[in-house]
Amino acid sequence: MKKLKYLLTLFFLFPLILLAQQSVTISGKVTDAAGGLGIPGVSVRVKGTNNGTLTNSDGTFSLNVPGPDSYIQFTSVGFAPQEIQVNNKREFQIILKQDNNNLEELIVVGYGTQKKLL
User: Fold this and answer.
1) Across-strand partners of 116?
2) Which tens digit of pLDDT belongs to each residue from 1-49?
3) Mind giving me the DSSP string for 70-114?
4) Which CATH architecture group holds 22-98?
5) Which CB contacts under 8 angstroms, 24+ apart, belong to 102-109?
6) Based on C-alpha coordinates, what's the Rg of the chain?
7) pTM above 0.85, yes or no
8) Where do the structural domains in the chain lie, given as residue ranges?
């Protein structure tokens, strides 16, 4: 009798364990707020992991995430970062706003000659 209870418990719990561990593939497009054009090279990353990708030349991406509780971070130079929760969505339209304050962090290095004026 104990063995039967044990087997029934495993039979009902095993599918729930498998369901909780399945990863989900999400996809979408990242555009700018000004013109609605796709932004290439945006970093799309699962928060707290090294799992991520970059958007392609037209701003689209595809990424495997651990599950619906995952948070996705979108970052790119010149744009304000954005973070969203996956929930049960599979397709996303992300709009990044320009952030001109971060442009001050860029350093441009040039090579050439220069005279020192006294």
Assistant:
1) none
2) 667 666 556 566 555 555 555 788 999 999 998 888 999 999 999 999 9
3) -EEEEEETTEEEEEEE-TT--EEEEEEPB-GGGGGG------S--
4) Sandwich (2.60)
5) 102/77, 102/78, 103/77, 103/78, 106/77
6) 23
7) no
8) 22-98
